[in-house]
Specification:
93 residues; alpha+beta; globular
Amino acid sequence: MTQNEYIALGLNGEEALKIIMKGSIEALENNKVGVVSVVFATTNKELAQQKIEKLVSTSDSKDYYMVYSVPLDTDLTTLEHYPSIAIRKEEFS
């Protein structure tokens, strides 16, 4: 699947809360670190779609964004897949 297909799954998920996450590689002193951040949360699907489109279109090409549809009042670690972004070692070069 492509990033756009994954984003569509998140936007169209049945859970009300939409979380937008950002993955990036950042310089920290003389090292690079992988950073995963929650950058936006809403229960408004249209607002989430507008925000993800803006973030993707104006971001650094090395930034990666994803949308998740998550349930409220739930320990997300108990789900089969919960909001996360993997950053591979190769991406640090």
